[in-house]
Amino acid sequence: MLNNREGFKSGFISIIGRPNVGKSTFLNRVVGQKIAIMSDKPQTTRNKVQGVVTTDESQMIFIDTPGIHKPKHKLGDFMMKVAKNTLKEVDLVLFMANADESLGKGDEFIMEMLGDSGTPIVLVLNKIDLIHPDELIGVIESYRNKMDFAEIVPISALQGNNVDRLMGVIKDYLPEGPQYYPADQVTDHPERFIISELIREKVLHLTREEIPHSVAVVIERIAKREGQETVDVSATIIVERDSQKGIVIGKRGALLKEVGTRARQDIEMLLGSKVYLELWVKVQKDWRNRANQLREYGFREDEY
Ligand SMILES: Nc1nc2c(ncn2[C@@H]2O[C@H](COP(=O)(O)OP(=O)(O)OP(=O)(O)O)[C@@H](O)[C@H]2O)c(=O)[nH]1
């Protein structure tokens, strides 16, 4: 805790929404650096990712929660628990929904869950660039009929429309408080986690529909070479089936090589030094249901 200035506001904001509503896009826009994984596949955000936005008057600490869904297996239960705990601890919840889709079962399920958290909820209707302004009123009404929101703010996270207004609303709801993080710090995640997410993102992008979101990446080693600027990173990509291993490796290793090239470029940007990246692919059957292994892959329940 660094600072305790009079009138300074600070607090924690949780972003909740169905997969693919644009939570990461919003976070990346306001934080201004690529920290949350972005993908057009559902549920790529599994761990807590913090983005910190600091101005002269406030500090907003964003928590990007996993896409909420009905639990189907252990990983689902775990994610739900994480999401629920997060809701109680934060100062404000942003419930993000698609403005270009009508209110569906998934959104109703989330609203039921949000109902008893006791935290103010701002409805953020994202992707307004995809609809005609006349349609917006109807969408707003459908949500307003279901639940009492502290505010309703339509935005386009992708194009930036109305994002400033949303930031103003968020500030209004934050309590007076200290500046928790230095102004230039945008995330408190260890580089390890960001690196694993960068690699995972490349796998998901390059394999498209063939590899489910269950793929995990474990960083085995990050080490700076003695007397050199090069950093050695070695990581294992974990899939559930032999067939998936084949897909990730690709013909004569071509796909894995491409994953490596793209991930290396991002990691070099992140670390600001040359990187030698070594990737392995391992099959671990049914890892999602083995709760005791979740920790090993970075799901740390006690952090929430
Ligand atoms: N047209 C439009 N597309 C958007 C907007 N915001 C996000 N998208 C797109 O929607 C898709 C999903 O965005 P993400 O930011 O990855 O969504 P998310 O909610 O973080 O998804 P999960 O991590 O899976 O929970 C991406 O293809 C984005 O480019 C928007 O305002 N307008």
Automatic annotation (TrEMBL):
The keyword ATP-binding does not apply. Residues 17-24 are annotated as: G1. InterPro entries: G_ERA_dom, GTP-bd, GTPase_Era-like, KH_dom-like_a/b, KH_dom_type_2, KH_sf_prok-type, P-loop_NTPase, Small_GTP-bd. Residues 9-176 form the Era-type G domain. It is found in: Cytoplasm; Cell membrane. Pfam families: KH_2, MMR_HSR1. The keyword Zinc does not apply. Residues 126-129 are annotated as: G4. Residues 43-47 are annotated as: G2. CDD domains: Era (cd04163), KH-II_Era (cd22534). It is a peripheral membrane protein. One of its GO terms (biological process) is ribosomal small subunit assembly. GTP binds at residues 17-24, 64-68, 126-129. GO terms for cellular component: cytosol; plasma membrane. It comes from the Bacteria. Residues 155-157 are annotated as: G5. Residues 64-67 are annotated as: G3. Keywords: Cell membrane, Cytoplasm, GTP-binding, Membrane, Nucleotide-binding, Ribosome biogenesis, RNA-binding, rRNA-binding. Residues 199-285 form the KH type-2 domain. Monomer. Belongs to the TRAFAC class TrmE-Era-EngA-EngB-Septin-like GTPase superfamily. Era GTPase family. An essential GTPase that binds both GDP and GTP, with rapid nucleotide exchange. Plays a role in 16S rRNA processing and 30S ribosomal subunit biogenesis and possibly also in cell cycle regulation and energy metabolism. This is GTPase Era. The gene is era.
